[in-house]
Amino acid sequence: MTKYLTQEGLKKIKKELEYLEKVIRKEVSEDLKHTSSQGDLKENAGYHIAKEKQGFVEGKIKELREIIAQAKVIEKKENGRSQIGSFVSLKLEGRKEKFQIVETEEVDILKGKISFNSPLGGALLGKKKGDIIEVDAPQGKKKYKVIDIG
Fold this sequence. Notes:
Blueprint: E1 3-5, H1 7-36, H2 45-70, E2 71-73, E3 87-92, E4 95-102, E5 113-115, H3 119-124, E6 132-137, E7 140-149
Parallel strand pairs: 1-2, 4-5
Antiparallel strand pairs: 3-4, 3-7, 6-7
Helix pairs in contact: 1-2
């Protein structure tokens, strides 16, 4: 399944993979070596914790490799419509908000990056400046006006 990522998002994922492979993997290996030398492995809690951490790290490495293998960097179409990778400025009840529509792996709500799978992100796909969208929110329906797409 293709993962549509921004150039920035792909770079971040590659950097995380490199850190896990070159730094964290070595630390876990050292932990395993150290804890396995401390006697009976059946009763060695430190060893079991290190093995669990190793499993988690290897799983994350596999996941990131799969994302990178499936990644396609988004090329923006200048057609005035929002798409994955677009920055969209909205107006809601007199205040402005700006979001970037991204793939799930790039979501960072604190930086305004929302998934195209979210209710708001999905509603924004294909919209143009001036469009009004309605989104179901926990507080009820919200109406947004698209004021800019970049």
